[in-house]
Amino acid sequence: MAYRVAIVDDSNIDAEYIQSILKAWAQDRQAVVQAQQFVSAENFLFHHADDKAWDILLLDIEMGAMDGVSLAKKIRQENELVQIVFITGFPDFMAEGYEVSALHYLMKPVAKEKLFAVLDKAAANLGKNEKRLAISFDRQTELVPLSKITYIEAQKQYVVVHTDTQEYRMKVTLSDTEKELDEYFFKCQRSFIVNLRHVLRIGSDSVVLKNGAEVPISRGMTQKIAKEIIRLF
Q1: Residues 21/123, Cβ–Cβ less than 8 Å
Q2: Distance in angstroms (rounded) separating the CA atoms of residues 120 and 125
Q3: What is the rounded distance in angstroms from the CA atom of residue 31 to the CA atom of residue 198?
Q4: Which end of the chain is more exposed for a tag (fewer CB within 10 A), N or C?
């Protein structure tokens, strides 16, 4: 499995320590973890405005103008699925953690085995939620929710993953990528897989997506795609 984790802490030493435990957990559980550190709640919110696809938030409480509890309340207004964990040296805010459905409350210094247990619980909860595709490119990995992918195409030894806002190119086979997708993805041609969530209209030789993109389909695929859409929706 793959997870995006935000560490929001104004102490660089504490954040680096938490990230080292995250790395150890990922290796032990054979998971892909894309972790990013933020020095304040405001710093995280600035990035969150354009990138909301986070799985786990590890939040310090006592920070600058905005504390971790206030940040969690703001995030909860638009995201009920993200797993929130408070990591702090102050127990005073424990009751407020329940208001934002916090997964757990860990006291600093955090014991490795305790954070491992909390991460295991977070992963189990996320397993019930939407899958994401781990896309590796330019020595980094981004976790993209499957629902955001419009279509995927093969280009020689690469695949290009399309969303409404971005294209990702990674060196992997189309067949290997197909194994990571859900039932809403349909191989409509030898080199193309379309996300049926995004299909607006089906033609004789292509499908038109809701964003205006056209994806070619093989001969005789029109009825098969239509039947799949009726079955799924």
Answers
A1: no
A2: 9
A3: 29
A4: C
Alpha carbon 55 to its chain centroid, in Å, reads 6
pLDDT in tens, 66-82: 889 899 999 988 787 89
Cα–Cα distance, 54 to 5 (Å, whole number): 6
Cα separation, 86 vs 102, in Å, equals: 7
CA atoms within 13 A on the CB side of 179: 4
Residue 29 has pLDDT above 80, yes or no: yes
The predicted model scores a pTM of 0.61
Q: What is the pLDDT of residues 109-148, one digit of tens each?
A: 999 999 999 999 999 888 766 788 989 888 788 888 898 8
DSSP class of residue 165 equals S
Residues 6+ apart with CB under 8 A from 196: 184, 185, 186, 225, 228, 229, 232, 233
Sheet with 2-8, strands from edge to edge, namely 32-38, 2-8, 56-59, 83-88, 104-107
Domains, the chain, with CATH or none = 2-126 (3.40.50.2300), 147-232 (2.40.50.1020)
